[in-house]
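Re: the 87-residue chain
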Amino acid sequence: MEQKTQTKTNIVALVVIILLVLIVGGLIYWQSKRTIPPSPPISEEVTRTKGPGKEDSTDTIFKEIESIDIGNLDQEFKEIDQDLNSL
């Protein structure tokens, strides 16, 4: 009787090991068949960069900076100094 239970235990262990091997093998096969969709090719239009246009030239930028109205800074600083001195 003891031999029969030992044989049953061996058979159950063997079946469990075979099932685990089949499951692991199936997962490996499934992972190898999954394909990553290829990324779209990069067109040349996207990779080419444009040179600096007229609006981005150094002279144009300096002209824009010079045209900014900053007001009379000396007068504003005098007013700030007066406010600080009155504290």
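The helical segments are 2-33, 44-47, 58-66, 73-85.
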